[in-house]
Amino acid sequence: MGQVKDSLGRPIRDLRISVTDRCNFRCKYCMPAEIFGPRYSFLPKRQILTFEEITRLAKIFSFLGTLKLRITGGEPLLRRDLPLLVKMLCELGEYEDIALTTNGYLLSKYAKELFDSGLKRITVSLDSLKETTFKYMNGGVSSVQDVAKGIEAAIGAGLCVKINVVVQKGVNEDQIIPIAEYGNNLGINTRFIEFMDVGNHNKWIEEKVFSARNILKVLKSKFSLEAIGSNYRGEVAQRYRVNGSSWEIGLISSITKPFCQDCSRARVSADGHVFTCLFGTNGFDIRSHMRKGLDDDDLMGLISKIWAQRKDKYSEDRALLRDNLEKVEMHHIGG
Ligand code: SAM
Ligand code: SF4
Ligand code: SF4
Fold first, then answer.
1. What is the structure's pLDDT at 234?
2. How far, in Å, CA of 302 to CA of 35, rounded?
3. Ligand in closest contact with the CA of 252
């Protein structure tokens, strides 16, 4: 069928598949513990896509032009036998890049198995090296040491590691330099992300956003940085390199400098709903069509139709849309 474009001319380049809606963390900016407490009910197993269904969808998306695949969640390492799924996705041979995003808590246990299954790249979320701030932001379950151990295990196993940092004003901006130095010392690229109004419960207000511009200012007080051009149209991070080295930092300015015009990212939730925007509401239930017995061509046709009708540009229209929209939760759809 070939490449499909949406109503603004954007192709699908990048697919994020969530493999579980469960998480062992309770990050305040994603799953605040007071809402997602012990009685919160996650999806029952029968509603979650099987490995075969995930692999089939990944293959269908690749036929529509998708080149990059991200495995996400919830916390993907909580999905039983995840290395087997990684192997199935790698064996498709359809993606130029497959990566996994994790909070790192279980990474020291699984890093080698993931590498042996064919995974090459992993992104680890780490918002602070200061234990009190880490525990405050991430819900108090894990520790900096757990995540650092995971990062070291991943490097040791041969995985290419990247760090994701969500920066919140008044909470962890003092961690920008320490985390950048940590990444620089280990030679791993580090991305700083503006705090976003995802879901309905993270008490987002614009005043809590520490802008990419300010993050850059902080970084420039320590490092001599040069801007690098983007690798491809639609790359979300503004990238910088420390002069004379190959170490990179990236800034993701979803709030202060939205990049909807180039957004080529499709998402599939753990229960098989296709979302054309991170700030969607219900998504499109592709799972029921799969389970009804539609063949690959029909599924491809359906996904093309969904994408062709896409008009999303939430971040550009945030001020108009924000208060009137019930948004999907981030742990449900993946980052
Ligand atoms: N549990 C895994 C993790 O935390 O890496 C994968 C899923 S998580 C939803 C994916 C990414 O979304 C993480 O890097 C996380 O920091 C980011 N994220 C979650 N909530 C966010 C928010 N409100 N603003 C910006 N980034 C957010
Ligand atoms: Fe935190 Fe990721 Fe879990 Fe959300 S899904 S609570 S960002 S660890
Ligand atoms: Fe893409 Fe939606 Fe984010 Fe805009 S708001 S960049 S359309 S996911």
1. 65
2. 35
3. 1
Residue 257 main-chain phi, psi, to 5 deg: -145, 75
Both tokens assigned to 216: 């850059």
Cβ–ligand 1 contact at 104 (below 6 Å): no
Topology at the third CATH level for domain 14-333: TIM Barrel (3.20.20)
Residue labelled with tokens 């709030």:
255
CA 24–ligand 3 middle distance (angstroms): 27
- What is the structure's pLDDT at 59? 98
Supply the pLDDT for residue 335.
80
Note the pLDDT of residue 325.
83
What ligand has the least distance to the C-alpha of 193? 1
Pairing of strands 273-275, 284-285: antiparallel
Task: Say if CB 134 and CB 144 are below 8 A apart.
Answer: yes
- Measured CA to CA, the distance from residue 329 to residue 159 in angstroms comes to 29
CB of 315 within 6 A of ligand 3: the answer is yes
CB atoms within 10 A of CB 49: 24
Maximum pairwise Cα distance, the chain: 58
State which ligand 3 atom lies nearest to the alpha carbon of 259: 6
Distance (Å, whole) CA 237 – CA 251:
5
User: What pLDDT does 244 receive?
Assistant: 83
Cα angle 329, 198, 35 (rounded to 5 degrees) comes to 50
pLDDT at 1: 65
Q: Which residues line ligand 2 (CB under 6 A)?
A: 23, 25-27, 30-31, 73-75, 103, 330-331
Consecutive 10-residue runs of the chain (335 residues): their mean pLDDT?
A: 89 97 97 94 96 98 97 98 98 97 98 98 98 96 96 98 98 98 96 96 95 98 91 78 91 95 96 97 97 97 97 92 85 89
